[in-house]
Amino acid sequence: MAYRNGTYIAFHADGTNQPGKSDIDYYNLMKAWSAKTDDDFSMINSHEKTSAVRDSSMRATLRARLLERLKNSKNMVLIIGKTTKNDTDWVPFEISQAIDTCKIPIIAAYTDYTSILAPADLRPLWPLALAQRIDNQTAHVIHIPFKKAPLMDAMPRFDHNNYPNNGGLGYYTREAQQPWGLL
To answer: Domain holding 154: CATH number?
Structure first.
């Protein structure tokens, strides 16, 4: 049995690792926040729990390594930007494995929003794998803006033993978001 204490972070790399070209920037920002010691933001990054894989690795090796990381995770942060829904490769695989196999909740963090009070309105941004699982009520999702305060609250709060309320359409109330300065 895996020790499930990590946060798995999924994002659409759009075929590049160049800064300013994909959602990898948000992943790198989370790593930088965690590396700083002047605030309380911390995370156990599931990507650092197994040996690295390179873009040139065989597809089967990549799949196996990603699944191993997911099995060691208590939750998944899914970074959702403008192009995330276009990913037809790794993001759908990560979503399906997180929900169907590992039974972990998704923290959907939207890059272009400062507050979220109606997650269903964001459906046009969802990858098909997420939309299908929200529709069939197998997904447990909290929808938040990609901001440090809600991430700091959601990552330790929601895990494989504690799902967000409202099934696939969970969100923080207006009252919860106000102290974070989101409204």
So the answer is: 3.40.50.11200
